[in-house]
Amino acid sequence: MPSELLTHEVLITWGTALAAFLAVALHGIWRVTRNVITIAHEGGHALVAVLTGRRLSGIKLHSDTSGLTVSRGKPRGPGMVFTALAGYIAPSLLGFGAAVLITNEQIQLMLWISIGFLAAMLIMIRNVFGVLSIIVTGGVFLVVSFYASAEVRDAAAYVFAWFLLLGGVRPVWELQVKRWRRQAPRSDADQLAWLTGVPALGWVSLFGVVSAAALVGGGALLLGRW
């Protein structure tokens, strides 16, 4: 690969990483961009609920970046445990999957998978803000997929992967801060504690380990590509 092209690609990789970092680290921006993480979070709950045989009733996304996924089935057992577990680790795992596809030259496939994921969620959304969030996010993916140049499409894919990897870490910390302040008595971690008997802090720690591992692994793939 010519040195000029290599330098260009390295700049894209680090530039998109910086852009994603700012979208996560800056509070004013994060209040908006966190909605994408909420979509991934609730989508994780929904996907695992369906895969474990539970009946998905609906999904709500709220303007304060909170969300709710309701499924029906046995109130306890592996299906409920995996469904509750999926939310906080979903953004990080999706980010790692995006990094794998990018490093295998499958950016268009990554975009189409994302569009399909959003379309499937849209069917189950049960509030107006949630519908608008999915439509706006899906519209961005459609525009990038159909109308953007190859360079813009590649940069957007990198930003998306970095954002999911980095954005999967911050909510875990925010969750524990709320738990310290006793502001999240019905969090996913507390539900898992009730379901399994394992302390909620253990589940928060697991969320943190998975998100950190995905960030390290996915970041290494993206940076190591060049």
Automatic annotation (TrEMBL):
Keyword Glycosyltransferase annotated: no
Protein name stated in the entry: M50 family metallopeptidase
UniProt KW keywords: Membrane, Transmembrane, Transmembrane helix
UniProt-listed InterPro entries: Peptidase_M50B-like
Lineage: Bacteria, Bacillati, Actinomycetota, Actinomycetes, Pseudonocardiales
Transmembrane segments: 12-30, 81-101, 107-124, 131-149, 155-173, 194-223
Keyword check for Disulfide bond: no
